[in-house]
Amino acid sequence: MEIHKYKKLDLDIIVLLMFFMIISCLSIYSAEKFLPYEKNFAMNQAVFFIIGFIVTAIVYLFDFEQIKKLSMYLYFLGVMTLFILRISPESIAPTIKGIKAWFSIPGIGTLQPSEFMKVFLILFLAKIIHDHNEKILNRTFKTDFMLIAKMMGVTLVPLFLILKQPDAGTGMVIVCILLGMIFVSGVNWKIITAILSVGLCMLLTLVYIFVNKSQILLLFLDQYQLDRIYSWLDPFGYSQGIGYQLRMSILASGSGMIYGKGYGEAKVAVPEAHSDFIFSVITEEFGFVGACFVLCLYFLLIYKIIVVALKNKGEYENLMAAGIVSMLLFHVFENVGMVIGAVPITGIPLPLISYGGSSVLGNLLALSLVNNISATTNQYMFANND
């Protein structure tokens, strides 16, 4: 007799999520002493996780044929929500730190639509690739370019709305999702190589412009975003202004040394450490060892998603898993990099650890879909299945 899906929950993912929830709540609680608010952020984060588990459990009940059919509607719902956010008055969608990216919901808090748009985009791109590959049996350069054009067209709409907020960090995540899914879409490797070459040339061109004629960048960047780059290159030179947060983050991360100062012993007050800079709290209190432990958890989570995808025979499910891996990889790389000063600050949260209801719910939604895929394979890293 067939075992129902709910009896085949992937214990590996559940255990990893428990670790992330504990680390998140403890780190946020420790960071609260530096915040000029009386709000209990750690308790709120725990509530976000509980709500996320409940809501995403509903998603777990759907099969992927249903999810594939709903993906287009979810995509348009996400785009419409971003458009409504764009035209909403300040009373409904306030501008916070120069960015209009949240709806204000009385009695609940804020909701960031772009966090859900990332997942909806992954679902819809997977459908586009799957349908294209089913229809086109004899692939040519022309059909591959058609597929890429369709994927880019679908991606550019939410990307434009997100960049108009302006939220360059989330925009970069959207681009990374697109590139990751193009990579696994089955298009000719010569096309992928050409795309990567063009991307590298564009990056080198931007570097050249920044070094020699940086004012040109103001055509598509705000002065604040340009100053962010300057402060990244010289955080201590801008330590009394825009570089203050990065300077304090570097000091906090470095002061933890190998084993850290101990839980609750953080001394360096990093602004808004409970959200995007939560990794600085972890490195200060638990040092290099603690930082490696957290990164190992992310490695195990991403490894698990890849294993689940490889063991699953459904193309749509595997494409979706690839999009989720691309999203998580970029989030972790960019967040950890900006905290230690390796890359410019973009305001990207650390998945499942940074404070934020929308981020937690969005990531749990994505991982619920992975758990759904795993239900059809029932393969575990830490258990034997006889």
Beta strand count: 2
Instruction: Supply the number of structural domains.
Output: 1
Rg from Cα: 21 Å
Percent range of helical residues: 55-70%
Span of the ends, CA to CA? 16 Å
What is the averaged pLDDT score?
87
Element pattern in H and E: HHHEEHHHHHHHHH
Basic shape? globular
Largest sheet, spatial ordering of strands = 1-2
Written overview of the protein:
With 386 residues, this protein is mainly alpha-helical. It has one domain. The chain is 65% helix and 2% strand. It contains twelve helices and two strands, in the order H-H-H-E-E-H-H-H-H-H-H-H-H-H. The protein has helices at residues 11-31, 41-60, 64-87, 113-135, 141-163, 168-183, 189-212, 223-233, 244-255, 278-311, 315-339, 357-374; strands spanning 103-105, 109-111. A two-stranded antiparallel ribbon has the order 1-2. Strand 1 and strand 2 (109-111) form a beta hairpin. Helix 3 packs across helix 4 and helix 4 (113-135) packs antiparallel against helix 5 (141-163).
Helix-strand blueprint:
Layout: H1 11-31, H2 41-60, H3 64-87, E1 103-105, E2 109-111, H4 113-135, H5 141-163, H6 168-183, H7 189-212, H8 223-233, H9 244-255, H10 278-311, H11 315-339, H12 357-374
Antiparallel strand pairs: 1-2
Subcellular location: Membrane
Keywords: Cell shape, Membrane, Transmembrane, Transmembrane helix
Membrane topology: Multi-pass membrane protein
In short:
This protein has 386 residues and is an all-alpha fold. The chain has helices at residues 11-31, 41-60, 64-87, 113-135, 141-163, 168-183, 189-212, 223-233, 244-255, 278-311, 315-339, 357-374, and strands at residues 103-105, 109-111.
